[in-house]
Q: What sequence folds into this?
């Protein structure tokens, strides 16, 4: 996933581009570059690695001009290098192009263009698009792009400038990855992510798949692939620039962990009538016939969002008795799933742009399922292909490791379960709702333990292997805790059903392998205690997340992280938080790049 940004108007372009790239660095940071068309030339500065390197180069190479493009790259074709950094120029240096996505037929196109005499200087699929557009350019840049689009296969969003345009202009096209515009007075902006434009506005226009646009200082012309003029509404984001900044925390991830009381509150606020015991949503309104038709649910997601789906299975099955399947986006569509109109499919995605999840959602819808999205980004692709959306109101999540998006996904799934229960005529009891109201305070109570958790990581941050154990509704939290640790600290960690430990992983137990276990609630507490006895009997060292006092755990908890007890169905929201803090502080002690872990990107918009 890459970040693209563009500007045309009356300001100096480069400062606008750098501000946007800074806010999108989490989308990829293998290389970065900018281009400004000037006096018949395409002045380009690129740098491998993080954005700071580009900023350093720009201090030496002034780039005056009021039109330009900027790009931060997450490598898909061609290793991270300056040679493969965008913007890409065509072989005749007439145009420069930046791109997010994958051109699946780029090799075929490249060979055809090479046969026509076009030369290439990079390994990228993007350069193929630049040469293709240039080969079709007969004076009108938008027309050249329109002619190129039908020849491209894959998912892409790109922006292009040309030295041959009669006035400064940018032409963009979207087919997959997101592209937003800001239509200003005498100036126009574009970016992959609305967060990049927060310095300038909160009113953005989301392009749809197949849309093109020509941006000139005086205005924007929107058109479909056939060139017919179209209209797209402007959406006001409820984010503000401060919210998207770090708020005084050392890392975005830590800020976002601490955002969780508010994020959880914001996600159920306005959707629960505690007096009447009713659930309602602003972007989801199922009819009685819809509720009656639902015989099964399919929850589709990747990574952390998949873990939320695994918790969602427990919530929905317990509260509605409707069977739920949970599957990885990357697996679902290739296993020929059994889907029909009796299935309610729900795509769970923070970004709403994860290609694997989108593909699964499309497959479910094509097979007749009713399709919903649980998503954190207004107007993202997952929300556009769905018939209804439950937005998580976590605010922008910048850290690559998902935290507040996860806990708010759990809230959204809990509300969905109650909504389905209500729709099937089953009563909502007071105990279904009272737990929600207390969650923000309970999360805040856990956050107050951060110093103790940070201190605990002094003992464990050197460990290279961890085992995370959970049972029942907390088994997915063991998976999530393990994922958090491994993706930001690069320590290996494995989440496992606690009951399964004796069927293999117990062979690993010794004093070198810290075991993190979740022992909360009533249903399986004693069973987890037995598993911890097995760990202790083999000399293992345990870190236990529990809602019980130390004396209730006997001698099985070498280190205890106490959490408040809430409704058993909501306890996963609480149990996640100490594991997020543990992973964060281990990573900090290991000197890892917490917000931008190696090899990762915030949203994987390629399959
Ligand atoms: C979670 O910390 C990871 N960043 C990753 O697993 C992520 O959850 C996954 O890529 C899905 O992203 P999405 O929620 O934006 O679809």
A:
């Amino acid at each position: 996933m890459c970040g693209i940004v563009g500007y045309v108007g009356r300001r100096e372009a480069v400062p606008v581009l750098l501000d946007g790239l800074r806010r999108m660095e989490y989308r990829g940071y293998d290389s970065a570059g900018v281009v400004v068309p000037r006096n018949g030339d395409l002045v380009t500065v690129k740098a491998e690695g993080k954005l700071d390197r580009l900023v350093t180069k720009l201090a030496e190479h002034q780039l005056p001009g009021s039109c330009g493009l900027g790009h931060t790259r997450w490598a898909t074709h061609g290793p991270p290098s300056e040679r493969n950094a965008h913007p890409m120029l065509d072989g005749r240096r007439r145009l420069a192009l930046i791109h997010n996505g994958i051109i699946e037929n780029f090799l075929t196109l490249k060979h055809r263009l090479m046969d026509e005499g076009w030369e290439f200087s990079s390994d990228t699929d993007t350069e193929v698009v630049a040469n293709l557009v240039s080969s079709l350019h007969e004076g009108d840049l938008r027309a050249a792009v329109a002619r190129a689009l039908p020849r491209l296969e894959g998912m892409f969003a790109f922006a292009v400038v040309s030295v041959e345009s009669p006035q400064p202009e940018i032409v963009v096209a979207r087919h997959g990855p997101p592209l937003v515009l800001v239509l200003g007075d005498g100036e126009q902006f574009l970016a992959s992510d609305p967060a990049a434009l927060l310095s300038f506005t909160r009113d953005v226009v989301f392009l749809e798949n197949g849309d093109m646009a020509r941006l000139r200082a005086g205005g924007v012309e929107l058109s479909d692939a056939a060139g017919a003029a179209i209209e797209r509404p402007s959406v006001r984001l409820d984010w503000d620039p401060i919210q998207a900044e770090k708020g005084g925390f050392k890392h975005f991830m830590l800020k976002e962990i601490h955002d969780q009381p508010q994020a959880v509150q914001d996600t159920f606020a306005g959707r629960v009538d505690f007096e009447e015991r009713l659930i309602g949503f602003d972007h989801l309104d199922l009819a009685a016939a819809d509720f009656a038709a639902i015989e099964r649910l399919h929850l589709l997601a990747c990574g952390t969002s998949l873990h939320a789906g695994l918790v969602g299975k427990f919530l929905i099955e317990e509260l509605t008795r409707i069977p739920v399947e949970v599957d990885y986006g990357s697996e679902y569509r290739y296993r020929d799933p059994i889907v029909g109109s009796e299935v309610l499919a729900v795509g769970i995605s923070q970004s709403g742009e994860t290609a694997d999840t989108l593909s699964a959602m499309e497959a479910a819808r094509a097979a007749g399922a009713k399709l919903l999205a649980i998503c954190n980004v207004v107007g993202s692709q997952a929300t556009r292909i769905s018939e209804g959306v439950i937005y998580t109101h976590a605010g922008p999540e910048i850290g690559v490791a998902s935290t507040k998006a996860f806990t708010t996904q759990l809230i959204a799934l809990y509300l969905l379960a109650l909504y389905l229960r209500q729709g099937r005529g089953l009563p909502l009891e007071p105990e279904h709702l009272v737990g929600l109201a207390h969650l923000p305070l309970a999360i805040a109570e856990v956050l107050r333990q951060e110093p103790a958790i940070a201190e605990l990581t002094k003992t464990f941050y050197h460990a290279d292997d961890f085992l995370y154990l959970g049972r029942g509704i907390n088994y997915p939290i063991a998976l999530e805790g393990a994922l958090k640790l491994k993706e930001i600290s690069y320590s290996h960690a494995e989440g496992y059903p606690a009951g399964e430990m004796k069927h293999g992983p117990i062979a690993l137990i010794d004093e070198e392998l810290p075991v993190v276990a979740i022992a909360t609630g009533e249903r399986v507490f004693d069973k987890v205690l037995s598993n911890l006895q097995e760990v202790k009997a083999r000399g293992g060292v345990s870190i236990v997340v529990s809602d019980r006092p130390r004396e209730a755990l006997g001698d099985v908890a070498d280190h205890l992280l106490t959490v408040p007890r809430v409704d058993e169905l909501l306890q996963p929201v609480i149990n996640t938080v100490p594991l997020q803090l543990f992973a964060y502080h281990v990573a900090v002690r290991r000197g890892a790049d917490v917000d931008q872990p190696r090899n990762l990107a915030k949203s994987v918009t390629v399959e």
Notes: The chain has 18 helices and 26 strands. The longest helix spans residues 404-423. The pocket of 2-deoxy-2-amino glucitol-6-phosphate is lined by residues 302-305, 349-351, 354, 357, 400-402, 487, 603-604 (CB under 6 Å). Residues 15 and 473 are 48 Å apart (CA to CA).
